[in-house]
Every structure is written in C-alpha cells, then in structure tokens.
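Lay summary. Proteins are chains of building blocks that fold into shapes, and those shapes determine what they do. In this project we predict the shape from the chain. Here is one chain we studied, written as its sequence of building blocks.
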Amino acid sequence: MSASGERRFGRRGLLVAGAGLVAGAAVGGGATLAGGAAPSAEVQLRRSAWSALRGRTIRVEGGRRARILGVEDLGRPGTRLRAATTGREDAFVLRLALDRPAPTDEPVVLHHPKLGAVPLLLTHGRGRGHVATIDRRTAA
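And here is the predicted shape, written in a compact code that computers can read:
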C-alpha cells in the first residue's frame, strides 16, 4: 500500500488479478451506493456507465485530467471478436485523452462522477490518447 492507503498493483499483479484489469481494488475515496456499499466492479465496468461521459472531462489520480473520447466495440470491423462483442455492456474499449502521459505499467485511477474511483490499466492509443480495454465476458 502507498502512503495514502491506496493499494498499488504492478503489471504482474494485474495479470494475476484477471486479464490485465484491476476490478474491485481497494482504493480510498470512492463513491458509495445507497446503504454505504461501494459500487461493484460489475457496475463500474459497464459500457453504459462510461458512454454517458463521452466528451466530458474527469479527474484522474495524481492531479491529471482525462477527456472521455469514446466507448467502442472490441476488435476490428468484420472480425469475429467484433461480432461477438458488438454492443455488449461487459466488453468494450474506453478511449481517453489525458492532459499528461499516464503510466502503462500500473493502474491509473479514474474518478467516475457517480461511481467513484475506478482503477484501470491503460495502454497508449492513437496520438496522445490512452485506451482501457474492458472485457469481462469470462469473469465469473
């Protein structure tokens, strides 16, 4: 844990945690649902939770800001992956534009305005953009 009480994972820990995505990691300062429970990873990682934010800027841990560029289907058009995931709530790509580069070897905590802190592993996308791939089809 870091000095601020947040749990940090390296790339190896992410792979162990499940397909490179940290879901439900213990992160301080997150939002809570009615009754005091923190939102589940299933709720935080739904396409609809992020689609509504397209074009908006959100806070990112470490003083960064990210503009949500879009939410897209997985895979290239015409592929089996695209056909299998088109429109699914549990499998999508989140495209972001960060005001400063983000690390790609550990999760970056995005602060969803309604769902609180959501740690995601980002990769470099087009240009200066970053991408988070969410694929919970095999998660149980």
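What the prediction tells us: Strands lie at 57-60, 64-72, 91-98, 108-112, 116-120, 123-124, 129-135.
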